[in-house]
Amino acid sequence: MKYAVGYQFTNPNTTFFDLCQPWLDSIAEVYFPWVYHPSARAALGEDHFMLDYTAIERLIYDLRRFKRNGKKLDLLFNSNCYGADAVSPQLEGEIYSIIDYLATTVCDVDIVTTTSPVVAYIIKSKYPSIKTRASVNMRIGTVCGMRYLADVFDEYLVQREYNRNIEYLKKLKHWADTNDKKLYILVNSGCLAHCSGQTFHDNIVAHKWESNNRLRMEVFSGKDGRSVSVCWNYYKVQGNLIDLLRATWIRPEDIDNYKGFFDTVKLATRLNPAPALVLKAYAQGSWKGNLTDLFEPQLSSVIAPCILDNTSFRDDWFQTTSICGRCCEDCSYCEDTYRQICKEIEQ
């Protein structure tokens, strides 16, 4: 079982390929958005209204190195919303031009991950050799959900909330195998399980370039402690940090339990400040540190000056949480575990 890692620009003296190189054998895929294009994260090459005009050159340089080392390239068209262009010739033309440009400068794209059935259809119609993968943000977590879009998607990132339900994953896997489809999971999301603000937040990110001009910055700049993300506000309330343990992440120590289900699992590393650390922890199958350092969003500042000591988990953590059915109202297991692993560190 290998990993898909999310591309990010690092400091000017180090490329993303250089960061990943020590763990290159553990990487199967690199996923990336096109420069300045809407995505499930802030646009690559754009930072606070400033455009990095070296971005395309830097991205191409790295992608060539990954491809020469046998890694698949997964192009993201996973913005949650494309606005008025969602079904437009404009978006179609952009997709064609980006894929064709990559084919001439790097190589053919292997995979396209998208939140849009329309984008998936566009890809399948013109580029039948490219695998289409449903984004985790589509929240497809049932056989019905996969079946409805089986004509345009070859692969599915399973809804995060089912990551710890091994028996349920077996049912999804059976359908996928029977219908010549493949499944993937995202294993280090720091997002709340069943987050009621996910659609709103995903749309804000998709329109970041426009919305930054219109946000009530006096409210949402953090000066009053308020965020557009539900989790940052929620975790500030005493007692809510227990839900960090009720989320959807899988510890590096538990990843081997998913062999046979997935050939490749996804690591969120597009915004994590230490992407190589995340890759190293999962490649080695162990992490002796603050568990939230592996998450995206990282959330380490939320629990500071405490950490979630990954070495202090109970031996029965995976066995218990993989069959619990998320009946949190009738169970204190995560609450008890939180008290056990939450450690204050010396300043």
Q: Can you offer a commentary on this structure?
A:
With 347 residues, the chain is an alpha/beta fold. The chain has a single domain (2-344), classed as TIM Barrel, CATH 3.20.20. It contains 14 helices and twelve strands. The strands form three sheets. Strands 9-8-7-6-5-2-1-10 form an eight-stranded parallel beta sheet. Strands 3-4 form a two-stranded antiparallel sheet. A two-stranded antiparallel sheet has the order 11-12. Helix 6 links the parallel strand 8 and strand 9.
Layout of SSEs?
Blueprint lengths: L1 E5 L9 H5 L6 E7 L12 E2 L2 E2 L3 H14 L3 E6 L11 H17 L5 E4 L2 H10 L4 E4 L8 H6 L6 E3 L8 H13 L3 E3 L13 H9 L1 H4 L5 H4 L9 H5 L29 E4 L7 H10 L15 H4 L2 E3 L8 H5 L11 H9 E3 L3
